[in-house]
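Field: COMPLEX_INPUT
Field: COMPONENT_COUNT = two
Field: RESIDUE_TOTAL = 229
Field: MODE = joint
Values follow.
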Amino acid sequence: SQQGEEDPQALSIQEGENATMNCSYKTSINNLQWYRQNSGRGLVHLILIRSNEREKHSGRLRVTLDTSKKSSSLLITASRAADTASYFCATAPSYSGAGSYQLTFGKGTKLSVIP
Amino acid sequence: KAGVTQTPRYLIKTRGQQVTLSCSPISGHRSVSWYQQTPGQGLQFLFEYFSETQRNKGNFPGRFSGRQFSNSRSEMNVSTLELGDSALYLCASSLGQGVGDTQYFGPGTRLTVL
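Field: COMPLEX_OUTPUT
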């Protein structure tokens, strides 16, 4: 079953605008990660934020985490056509044991950046 | 370091056949996970192997199986293929020693079942 749910499912913006995607999850987490997938290809890791962190930056990416609301957001600033892709959040559970090594992925947000 | 490689990249099979997919992880990574991705269901976890042992398994029927070799390379096998098995199969490798380690994905194998 899906732990993370991204919102919106699809987003279309003009080049240069900012894109914001949200992720909600249900159970306690150790960390939350964002991945990007270009059409029909493998996923690429973007950023990891731990449960004790509230915000993290990487280049044009900004991720926030609100554990009280069980939600995270990914902001891409000054978007480019090359940012067109699907974006997934993935959660790592807070418990230990065999299943704790596993990430659970949401269904993704499909971002289209129009030149 | 070389990335995760998957072979073959594309496969076309007919119902009832079986198929074996291969994944070579990043050097030094001991964990390999397999996922099935379809437009309707998204990314579904199949199983994870660490040091040749299946450590975690998703909710897939027994027709889906896998193994890992001593060099960490992994294979997954699907027997008695069904039309619904058409999907992009992704493998991902990680160090596998920490909770929620970053996963590094291969380009995937696109399986079409006719």
